[in-house]
């Protein structure tokens, strides 16, 4: 049986392939299935201008010849002539979305390099025109080396020209031998796609042009990551540099409040509960409100301007290298605020193993609850010195802690993907929104919500655990010659834990603070404040800032080990709870607790031992 020529419709998802297929075939369609897979095969008959029939087959949309789904696999196999139940097409009808030219050209270049006779349908030119985008099909034709026809599939525009071009292509088909495609790297193809798009776009509105101009720098393979790094770096500098004045102010008011309560109440349990428990504990955490707001000001600005999506794009390649999909970026990004919404956001990740990996590493992103812990230790132990003339050492250390968290997450992902969550890689592409000036209202609202969340935590979980700790630290009351840190119930429990954390340089008070901090990380700070306040032997010492008290009691290696511990330790009940809910059982939260506490212990230990050996 001599078969009629076969032409495959290919292109990115949503380019308008099916619309174009319908426009050309009309009602003459057949729907079947490819053998062995659940992917549908839709084909139809088209009569060329000279009356010859061809068979047109509508392939699933794909982003590249590197398949990340069964659909994309079929598309690749068909164009390579390897698909069971399909012969190698005689020609390709390549559909491009004119409004998304540089993205779609990437796949187009790969397909054209296969060497099959190809006709390009430059589709959606109506939408492009509406956006103020004018594309010269002749330039495209010259750059791609194949015929290009402008079409509007939904309005049947371009039908005749397309059939004419297909006719020529299938005639030529007898003469060409298909090649094997291109071995060029993703980056090379990407650059070429962008060059072609730039050459073909002859008219563009100012907004579009500006967006492209900024992107040519922001997404540049070298400049892009550098710019991203600089922005992050500046952000952490600002967290310390801008917060000093408001934080001191809050600190002063907390001290005033303690003084006022102390003056108004007689010496006794109630006074101790209020001054040493509630105000010392909650106050120690509230002081960090300015730093949290500065951090979120940056995050909100980056999101509102449209830069965050670019950051996701830049990170995609790095994530792919550790076996994660770019889809994980947004959940991981939200985990910088809090792992709970981050873990819930993993629901958008289809592949169950990618999703699980993302859930398991989400707690390694530095959430805002760690900021008080980091900030108090950095404030107490890292001198407020400038490095290399301009950069604050404190901001630098904070930046470093965030980076260590990220590196930890990437390495963990790599190991998980090689062991418990082994699976295949999935590609990822993003539509880039245009850049925008952020709306002041949105930013203010976002900050307000953040402040409320933070203060609510201070008023609930931190307040409650502080009061509980105060009770456990006050019962039984120390006898003369004893301290509350030793004799109380909390003190006794801490002594038990101390056995485990002593080798990594932690002292009794740290052991004491770690237990209530299982509820939430900031509680470590309020717990230390409460413990030291109760323990202070005289009034003046009670009003001494926590920072100074730490400085007097901890060695530098201990302080550094404490920081390293909190980079990894999964000390957050809500995270454990949400992991249990999202993974339907205790297996994965238990695994998460196990591997993260092990890492925390090892990291703190390594830090302590190294710092001690260096004589710090
Ligand atoms: N305005 C306009 N809309 C179009 C055009 N072509 C397609 N569309 C619309 O774009 C959307 C996507 O079109 P489809 O034909 O389903 O795209 P596809 O390439 O088959 O997508 P997948 O099968 O998912 O890969 C549909 O809502 C179409 O109606 C066009 O030329 N102009
Ligand atoms: Mg389709």
UniProtKB/TrEMBL annotation:
**Where exactly are the transmembrane stretches of this chain?**
222-245, 278-302, 322-344, 356-382, 388-416, 454-473, 554-578, 590-611
UniProt keyword annotation of rRNA-binding present: no
Q: InterPro entries in the record, alphabetically?
A: Fe2_transport_prot_B_C, FeoB_GTPase, G_FEOB_dom, Gate_dom, GTP-bd, P-loop_NTPase
Q: Name one GO molecular function term.
A: GTP binding
Gene Ontology cellular component list: plasma membrane
Record bears the keyword Ligase? no
Supply the Pfam families for this chain.
Answer: FeoB_C (PF07664), FeoB_N (PF02421), Gate (PF07670)
Residues covered by the FeoB-type G domain:
4-172
From the Swiss-Prot or TrEMBL record, give the protein name: Ferrous iron transport protein B
Organism of derivation: Sphingomonas parva
**Upper lineage:** Bacteria, Pseudomonadati, Pseudomonadota, Alphaproteobacteria, Sphingomonadales
């Amino acid at each position: 049986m001599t078969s009629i020529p076969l032409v495959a419709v290919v292109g990115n998802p949503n380019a308008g392939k099916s619309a174009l297929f319908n426009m050309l075939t009309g009602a003459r369609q057949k729907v079947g299935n490819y053998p062995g897979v659940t992917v549908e095969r839709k084909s139809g008959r088209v009569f060329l201008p000279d009356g010859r029939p061809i068979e047109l087959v509508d392939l699933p949309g794909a982003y590249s010849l590197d398949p990340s789904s069964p659909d994309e696999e079929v598309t690749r196999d068909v164009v390579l002539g390897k698909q069971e139940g399909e012969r190698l097409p005689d020609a390709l009808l390549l559909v491009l979305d004119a409004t998304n030219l540089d993205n779609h050209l990437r796949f187009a270049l790969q397909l054209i390099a296969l060497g099959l006779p190809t006709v390009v349908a430059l589709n959606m030119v109506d939408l492009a025109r509406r956006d103020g985008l004018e594309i010269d099909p002749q330039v495209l034709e010259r750059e791609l080396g194949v015929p290009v026809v402008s079409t509007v599939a939904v309005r049947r525009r371009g039908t005749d020209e397309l059939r004419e071009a297909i006719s020529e292509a299938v005639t030529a088909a007898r003469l060409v031998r298909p090649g094997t495609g291109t071995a060029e790297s993703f980056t090379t193809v990407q650059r070429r796609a962008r060059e072609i798009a730039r050459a073909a776009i002859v008219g563009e509105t100012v907004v579009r042009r500006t967006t492209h101009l900024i992107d040519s720098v922001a997404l540049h393979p070298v400049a892009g990551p550098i710019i991203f790094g600089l922005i992050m770096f500046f952000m952490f500098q600002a967290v310390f540099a801008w917060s000093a004045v408001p934080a001191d102010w809050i600190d002063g008011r907390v001290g005033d409040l303690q003084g006022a309560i102390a003056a108004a109440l007689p010496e006794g349990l109630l006074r101790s509960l209020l001054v040493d428990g509630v105000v010392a504990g909650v106050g120690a955490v509230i002081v960090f409100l300015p730093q949290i707001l500065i951090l979120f000001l940056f995050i909100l600005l980056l999101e509102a301007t449209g830069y965050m999506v670019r950051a996701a794009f830049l990170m995609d390649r790095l994530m792919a290298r550790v076996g994660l999909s770019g889809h994980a970026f947004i959940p991981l990004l939200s985990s910088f605020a809090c792992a709970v919404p981050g873990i819930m956001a993993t629901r958008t990740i289809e592949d169950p193993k990618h999703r699980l990996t993302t859930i398991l590493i989400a707690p390694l992103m530095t959430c805002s609850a760690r900021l008080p812990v980091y900030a108090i230790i950095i404030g107490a132990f890292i001198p407020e010195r400038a490095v290399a003339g301009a950069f604050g050492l404190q901001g630098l250390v904070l930046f470093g802690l965030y980076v260590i968290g990220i590196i930890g997450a990437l390495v963990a992902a790599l190991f998980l993907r090689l062991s418990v969550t082994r699976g295949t890689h999935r590609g990822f592409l993003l539509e880039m929104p245009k850049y925008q000036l952020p709306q002041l209202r949105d930013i203010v609202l976002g900050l307000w919500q953040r402040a409320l969340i933070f203060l609510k935590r201070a008023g609930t979980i931190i307040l409650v655990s502080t009061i509980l700790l105060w009770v456990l630290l006050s019962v039984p009351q120390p006898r003369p010659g004893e301290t509350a840190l030793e004799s109380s119930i909390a003190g006794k429990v801490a002594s038990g834990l101390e056995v485990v954390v002593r080798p990594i340089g932690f002292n009794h008070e740290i052991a004491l603070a770690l237990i209530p901090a299982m509820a939430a990380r900031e509680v470590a700070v309020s717990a230390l404040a409460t413990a030291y306040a109760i323990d202070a032997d005289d009034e003046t010492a009670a009003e001494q800032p926590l920072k100074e008290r730490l400085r007097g009691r901890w060695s530098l290696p201990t302080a550094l080990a404490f920081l390293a511990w909190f980079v990894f330790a999964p000390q957050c009940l809500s995270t454990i709870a949400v992991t249990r809910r999202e993974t339907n059982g205790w297996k994965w939260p238990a695994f998460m607790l196990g591997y993260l506490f092990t890492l925390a212990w090892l990291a703190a230990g390594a830090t302590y031992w190294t710092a001690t050996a260096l004589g710090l």
